[in-house]
Specification:
Strand content: 15-25%
Oligomer: single chain
Order of helices and strands: HHHHEEHEEHHEHEHHEEEEHEE
Largest sheet: 5 strands, mixed
Number of helices: 11
Distance between the termini: 67 Å
Length: 335
């Protein structure tokens, strides 16, 4: 009998800062299954196979299948977390604006920053014996503000026990989408107003009120130098104006938009639609050095309640915050 079939599952496997999958992988590493019929499955998926629980596709099981034994019931909170994370990934826009993700164990985190002058950025030739220009990297004065975002799962086991897991997954994925949207709002707020360290976003204005022209985008691109304008965040009205520009009728840009739905501006920046921005501005940034995301773990659930089938008020949440790295790597364009 394989190792994964002998593991005793219990509540104690849910640890702060670690998912059940992480814990199972230490006990039952996936590398041990290379070249076998279980190759490609992670430790959690092997446990689903062990108890013959199908969570998706034709013939998916009912919710009650998780509670056939005390061992299998311990898998239910991880299934919930993974479904919510899948919804977050499908609705994800943060990966297009975040330079790096930092995982922390506690709630206190102080980021680093660098605000080089124009002379620092020039990297002029250094004569013999002369002082080499410095790039100063320092810790921020204030801690990163972490926000807990989540939803309350309100139902009863009796109401859900006969529901198919693939249908329940749709509901959980929608919760993940809500969390992702809230986190995007938090990220945009930090870009615009700063992270509490006197680093609010500066910017430029359009020549004509209520109108964005191609020349305005060029000015936004120039204002970011020496950083690259590779991402633009825009509300609905601004998106409409940009997509109607003659420059967007370029064959390559049009083909990309019509064929994949991915919107690219004439300047080659990814164009991201968001309702987090007021209707009179857009944000241009260099996604490679503008923003840091700080996470205190991944999605967490009330595993005690979920394992014991007390679903009436079970919370699903994620704690994260954002910090600006290079202050000049994001600019706003007001119109």
């Amino acid at each position: 009998m394989a190792l994964y079939e002998n593991i005793t599952l219990e509540k104690g496997m849910y640890q702060t800062g670690k998912s059940l999958t992480d814990v199972l992988e230490k006990i039952d590493p996936s590398e041990n299954y290379k070249g076998t019929e279980l190759d490609g499955l992670d430790a959690f998926s092997r446990q689903l196979k062990r108890f013959d629980i199908k969570v998706s596709g034709v013939g998916s099981d009912c919710v009650e299948k998780f509670f056939q034994t005390s061992n299998s019931s311990a898998l239910f909170p991880e299934y919930v977390s993974r479904a919510v994370m899948q919804g977050m990934e499908e609705a994800d826009a943060l990966s297009d604006i975040v330079a790096t993700v930092t995982m922390i164990d506690g709630m206190d985190y102080r980021s680093i920053t660098s605000n080089p002058t124009d002379d620092d950025k020039s990297l002029a030739a250094v004569g013999e014996g002369a002082v080499i220009p410095q790039t100063v990297v320092k810790t921020q004065e204030n801690l990163v503000k972490l926000q807990k975002r989540g939803r309350m799962l309100v139902s009863s086991y009796e109401a859900l026990r006969f529901q198919r897991l693939d249908l329940f997954t749709v509901t959980l994925k929608q919760i993940g989408a809500y969390i992702a949207k809230a986190q995007l709002n938090d990220a945009v707020n930090v870009i615009l107003n700063g992270d509490g360290n006197n680093n609010a976003c500066s910017g430029i204005s359009t020549a004509t009120a209520d109108t964005i022209t191609y020349a305005d985008l060029v000015s936004l691109w120039a204002s970011l130098s020496p950083y690259k304008l590779n991402t633009i965040l825009a509300p609905t009205g601004a998106m409409t104006q940009i997509l109607k520009m003659d420059e967007m009728k370029d064959a390559v840009a049009g083909l990309n938009f019509q064929g994949s739905g991915k919107m690219v501006t004439p300047l080659g920046a990814n164009l991201i639609h968001t309702s987090s921005i007021s209707s009179d501005l857009i944000i241009g940034l260099d996604k490679n050095c503008a923003l840091e995301m700080v996470k205190a773990g991944d999605v967490t659930t009330d595993y005690d309640k979920l394992i014991d089938r007390q679903l009436e008020r079970a919370t699903i949440s994620c704690i994260a915050g954002f910090a600006k790295i290079f202050v000049g790597a994001s600019k706003k364009l007001t119109y």
